[in-house]
Amino acid sequence: MTTQKAGKIYVHVFDWSDELLALPKLANARKGALLFQWEAVEVRQVDGGTLSAVAGWAGCWWDTVIVLE
Question: Beta-carbon neighbour count of residue 30 at 10 Å?
């Protein structure tokens, strides 16, 4: 699920156990961070989508939010 506000996209991750998250193409997304820890996450545009990599994934069991700018 995603929400957005003021030029930011909030990606809500409810169940994920990998370090790589594939998203639909988000052409304007260039950087990202975990919302509550403000730990930077890699954001990369690839053919057909957007990839976000979180080193040492430590998500919450209920909802981890990645903020893309």
Answer: 12
pLDDT digits (tens, 9 = 90+) for 11-59: 998 877 777 888 898 878 889 998 877 788 889 888 889 888 876 555 5
Kindly state the tokens that stand for 57.
């994934």
What range does the domain containing 42 cover? Answer: 2-57+64-68
Give one DSSP letter per residue of the chain, joined into a string: -EEEETTEEEEEESS--SSEEEES--TT---EEETTT--EEEEEEETTEEEEE-TT----SS-EEEEE-
How many structural domains is the chain composed of?
A: 1
